[in-house]
Every structure is written in structure tokens, then in C-alpha cells.
Amino acid sequence: MNERHLEGRVALVTGGAGGIGTAICMHLADLGCRVATTYRNPEKTQTWQRQMRDNGYDFAIFACDVAKYEDCERAAKEIEQHCGPIDILVNNAGITRDATLKKMAREQWHEVIAANLDSVFNMTRQVVDGMTERGWGRIINISSINGQKGQFGQCNYASAKAGMHGFTMALALETARKGVTVNTISPGYIATDMVMAVPEPVRAKILEQIPVGRFGETDEIAHVVTFLVSPHSGFITGANIPINGGQHMM
Ligand code: CAA
User: Fold this and answer.
1) Tens digits of per-residue pLDDT, 97-141?
2) How far does the centroid of ligand 1 lie from the alpha carbon of residue 151, in Å?
């Protein structure tokens, strides 16, 4: 297969300036995609965009709080005007607000559900009709090992991440005959700022639970995204692919 077999395709990666997001953007661009991403923090993202340009990657960036439906509606229109119809959507943006339930404020619950789960509805709703009408599309939801097994201090995050895969399975049924696949990837602990923000003693205990003996690399997630967007992956839909170093086997 041609190494740039996605030439002309448009990919939207939400939260692309984060650790896993950056690797996904780069891998999709390497396959020939025109890549767009959304951001909430303009300074951070403009700096990221300049750094990426210095490395030969031209990513289009659009202001959008994916927790807000109207933002997604506007951003998707802007992206399609600037880049063309969206063929690939990677719902990658996400946040943590860890606390045990007894200490969890309502805001911590709602913020995490809105940013991690409402966002999947908000953005997918904008692109799914176009994909089914054109007869080709790839939707990939970046969930988490903690949506599969639960995690101390993450009632909010584990609920949102488990919910993402429910969404994947339902939508996969609705789009199966229209050339659009919908899949979940569930990364384990990947060496990103989000994981490094976990207090060191807790992190050390988590590392002990990973049979491979290390945290994952962002490229190891992006690699599976490129696998799922391949034209040869049209029979994979509604799946939840774990990438966790053996920490949780199903
Ligand atoms: N299992 C059972 N008990 C535990 C425990 C665990 N894993 N961890 C702590 N406890 C116990 C403590 O021993 C303590 O017990 P005592 O009260 O009897 O002494 C009690 O729970 C502490 O409870 P608190 O509510 O006071 O906890 P805290 O406020 O000190 O910290 C926390 C809670 C902030 C959630 C902290 O445990 C933490 O940061 N955990 C990490 C959570 C995590 O893994 N987040 C992942 C972020 S990265 C990510 O999410 C990416 C991805 O997709 C993988």
C-alpha cells in the first residue's frame, strides 16, 4: 500500500496539542491527511503549531471547547470551509479531575463528563451525516483502561470513558452499512503530562502493575489509529482495542 494512502483525506483530532494527540496528528499527516485540531488554550496551541511547523507539519487549529455543542457546530463548519469535508474524526480531547467520591464536588463530576463524554456526542454529531452520505468515514474514540477496569479516585473519569465505548458500539451499528467504522482505543498509562501529574508514590504503584514494566509511548497509540483508518480495516467496527502493557486483560 502507498505510504501516503490517505492523501486528500481530512482528519480532525480534538485536543491535538496534547501528548497522545500530537502523536496522532503527526502519524495521520505522515499518511497524507490534512490534519485539523481544536483547542481551548490559544497561547499553548499557537506555540505548538509553530513548533510543529518547524518540524515540517502544517496543522490547522480551531478554537473550540468540545464540552459545548455550539462550539463544535461552529468549529466543524470552519474546518470544512478551510480544509474540506471531515473524513476521519479522532475524539481525543479529555481531562481528569481525580478525587475519591466522598471528596468529589459536583463541578468535578460535570466537568469530566462534559469534556470527555458530551464532547463525543457534540463533535461526532457534526460529522457523521457527511461521512455516511459520502460512503466513507473513520471515527475513533480515545477512551482509557480506567473505563474498562475502574480506578480509585476516578468515578467521574471511569464513567465517562466507559460511556465512550457504549457510544462507539451503538453508532457502529447505525453506520455499519454506510462505509463508516466506529472504534474505541483504550490506552493504559502512557508517558504524558496527564499521567505524570499523578502523585509520584501513586504512579510508582501503578508502574508496578504493568507487566511490560514501563509506561506506554504516545506513538504506540498513534500506530493503532493509523491501523484503524487504513482502507483494509473496514471490517473492524464497534471494537475496543486495549493498549496497556498487559495491565488489564479481557
Ligand atoms: N486502593 C485502595 N485504597 C487506596 C488507594 C487504592 N488505590 N489509594 C489510596 N487509598 C486509601 C489510602 O490508603 C487512604 O486510606 P486511609 O484513609 O484509610 O488512610 C485513603 O484511600 C485516601 O483517601 P483520600 O480520599 O483521602 O485520597 P486522597 O485525597 O489522598 O487521594 C486521589 C485520592 C487524588 C484520587 C489519589 O489517590 C490519586 O491521585 N490517585 C491516582 C488516580 C489515577 O490513577 N489517575 C489516573 C490519572 S491519568 C489517566 O487517567 C490517564 C488514563 O486514562 C490512564
Assistant:
1) 999 999 999 999 999 999 999 999 999 999 999 999 999 999 999
2) 8
